[in-house]
Design a protein that fits this description.
alpha/beta, Rossmann fold, 11-stranded mixed β-sheet, 8 helices, 13 strands, globular
Length: about 300
């Protein structure tokens, strides 16, 4: 049931040098989510903000810490907004990316998250041109939906083991999408995004796509479909402009005529379902082992932060 009552309270949870706070009041909350935020010890005025969406069976705190994002926020002075799913909504704590009511503008969970973003901007000194979103699995799929539904809000986003926006509009289709049985044409994927904000004429968010080559939960074909979706939204070629190898993994860049990378895709060789981390490994030591965190000798959070232009 989604009709949950939450106590109006704020508490602090220490994580690295900064702190996580839970804030019960952030405006309309039809998705009945919890709002958490990571405040670095040192954060500059007019700082960037990254919205982090955890995967199924994870907590917001675990995802912020074990992914390496909290460490990066501390080192680079930006805020983290950590929307948190509850077992009252979903027994596995998955964001509901597969229900139309939760991925429609100003409805359900996606509206709750958007209201958290507005609360962060009204409460803290945040550069509204530097708001980003990323997530894993169900959180990644909700990331794509946020980019589609609220394109005016985000500079860029990163989808880690996620599903194209609009692939599922009911739970009955969700597993078909995850296992790669619901593929679409380039035009159909493009329309799934464009119909969400039909009057929007501004720049669409840039997109970073990450996929484990051996992912059995979200099949790798979804990365191909995501590339088709977002390159077509940007009006650029579906064939990669460039290919390079980063820390042993293939990176594909999709650029416009100005050689600006609007979409990128990392295919993580040998990786199963999870967030790529690199604990104790050079050149980017990040993350810690846990459920759905994959030691792939590459730190996704670091490279996504570089794509966002907020990490040194």
């Amino acid at each position: 049931m989604k009709k949950l009552l939450f106590l109006a309270l704020i508490f602090t949870f220490n994580l690295n040098a900064g702190e996580i706070q839970t804030d019960a009041e952030f405006g309309p909350n039809p998705g009945n989510l919890l709002m958490k935020k990571y405040i670095p010890k040192k954060v500059r005025a007019n700082a960037p903000m990254v919205v982090l969406l955890h995967g199924c069976l994870q907590s917001a705190e675990e995802y912020a810490s074990s992914s390496g994002w909290a460490k990066l926020a501390e080192e680079n002075g930006f805020y983290l907004l950590l929307p948190s799913q509850t077992t009252g909504n979903n027994g596995m704590r998955c964001f509901t990316w597969f229900e139309n009511a939760d991925i429609t503008r100003d409805q359900g969970e996606i509206y709750s998250i958007h209201n958290m973003i507005k609360k962060m901007i009204s409460t803290h000194s945040i550069d509204t041109k530097k708001v980003f979103v990323t997530g894993l699995s169900a959180g990644a799929s909700m990331t794509g939906s946020l980019l589609a539904v609220y394109p005016e809000t985000f500079n860029a986003g990163a989808i880690v083991a996620g599903i194209p926006h609009g692939c599922a509009r009911a739970v009955s289709n969700s597993f078909m999408c995850m296992f790669g049985f619901r593929t679409g044409s380039v035009e159909s994927w493009k329309n799934e995004v464009l119909k969400e904000a039909p009057n929007y004429t501004g720049q669409r968010p840039r997109v970073s796509i990450w996929q484990g080559a051996n992912d059995q939960a979200v099949k790798p074909v979804n990365a191909t479909e995501l590339v088709e979706q977002w390159t077509s939204v940007h009006g650029i070629n579906q064939e990669a402009t460039k290919k390079e190898v980063v820390e042993g993994h293939d990176r594909f860049l999709y650029q416009n005529a100005k050689k600006e990378t609007l979409v990128e895709m990392y295919m993580i060789s040998g990786a199963s379902h999870g967030q790529p981390i690199s604990p104790g490994n050079a050149p980017t030591d990040c993350g810690s082992n846990g459920q759905y965190f994959v030691d792939a000798n590459i730190c996704a959070a670091y490279h996504i932060g570089k794509f966002f232009n907020i990490v040194k």
